[in-house]
Amino acid sequence: MNEFIGFNKPYFTGKEENYIRQTHLNQQISGDGIYTNLCHEWLENNLLCKKALLTHSCTAALEMAAILLNLKSGDEIIMPSYTFISSANSFVLRGAVPVFVDIRKDTLNINEALIEEAITPKTKAILVVHYAGVGCEMDKIMAIAEENNLFVVEDSAQGILSKYKDKFLGTIGHLGCISFHETKNITSGEGGALLINDKRFIRRAEIIREKGSDRSQFFRGEVDKYTWQDIGSSYLPGELTSAFLLAQFEESKSITQKRKKIWEKYYNAFKNFDNKGLICLPKIPKDCKHNGHIFYLMFENVKLRDKYIRKMNDSGVGCIFHYVPLHLSKAGRKYAKIHGSMAISEDSANRIVRLPMWIELGNKRQQHIINSTHEILTDFSYSR
Prior knowledge:
It is built from 13 helices and 14 strands. By secondary structure, the protein is of the alpha/beta class. Strand 4 (123-129), helix 5 and strand 5 form a beta-alpha-beta unit.
């Protein structure tokens, strides 16, 4: 196959351009216009959160969550180390200390069995990360939080339209954060959303998002002028971003179904190798419904993983690994601390590889990926 198959390619529904053009006709391209409000309505009606606020990134949503928790210097946030930088950095910016605990081997999510022993008098919240759009063990985590009077923030950057039991990810904890980055299932290039599931946070969240002002209340006619009320920043996206996003929302179920179909084709193609112990495939707990965001292979060791990536690259396929655990980074050592062993986080980071996952792969490209992987894995099994 002469074409190089890249790891990611954003999907366009075909309606984005028309909606963006309409924003020009409306002569409103700054934030909180018609399309932003339609996106808010879509999130609230479809995910069933109490309030949704679009942001310019998931990082911004996480930063808003950190402000809403009234963190002070030295407060501790329990979270996994195997996650993106923003998960920790958003809280460090408020003076808080991330406390890293290890992940589960099956889902790569935070190990709920390790949370309680990491709680101290300084603990303020638990941050969970739903890796690959597969839900953490939320019943157990929410019970721990309630018993210890802690907040729960869901980093559901990868979890749009995934479920834990009968609830959408991002709507179970007190606050949820979603990403619409180019690499996500539903995209606006950049973009995110804060989902508010505890009504106590709604009014202040609007103020924080609007530079610390009551501007949103002013536009609704609730105050006669808007003034500086609190700390905050400009967290809202422009209307062009929201117009693009609405087009994606309208096709979200179809997009999710198509991604899951690709995911299932990969899974069925490689499950025999999983049975032989050469690789491990993703595990989906019975209480979870995933969204086909990531398909990964877990190799026996880093040497085989890196060799596989090189060989796939030679065959014209872009496969990549994922996070470097945050506790191993320069900033992680400076601003955070660990509780217990990080063995699974470190081991998983060394063995994981992600396959291309985008809607327009088509049967020919996907079959090339499968055939190339079969050839490489067969060669690995003969060499063992």
